[in-house]
Amino acid sequence: MTDKETQKRLITEIMNEDAEDGLYKEETAVEWLIKRYHDHGTLYYEDMTKAKEMEKEQQNQSHVEGYRKAMNDANEYLKQEFNKFYK
């Protein structure tokens, strides 16, 4: 398996786990914007501004959740390694 294929597989696994954890239940900025356009037949500057703010917040939230998951995974790995050698 190539590095790109491995990366793609790992990213897909992480995204699937995130989905199971409920990370993607909230409406995305794009979904909100499309719904807004569908409801009003037009978009306003304020809509675009709000969508940008929503997207930034969602990116921040994804980053924090990814970091938290990585730290939890690393902690679990370290516990397992500790138990191998010291118990």
Topology:
Elements: H1 3-20, H2 29-40, H3 45-86
Q: For the residues shown, what is the average pLDDT?
A: 86
Helix content: over 70%
Contiguous helical run count? 3
| DSSP E strands, number | 0
Shape: elongated
Kindly provide the radius of gyration, computed on alpha-carbon positions and rounded to a whole number of angstroms.
19 Å
CA-CA gap between termini: 36 Å
Low-confidence stretches: none
Structure explained in plain terms:
There is one protein chain. This protein has 87 residues and is mostly helical. It contains three helices and no strands. It has a domain of 60 residues.
Summarize the structure.
It is built from 3 helices and no strands.
List key phrases describing it:
83% helix; mainly alpha; 87 residues; single chain; 3 helices
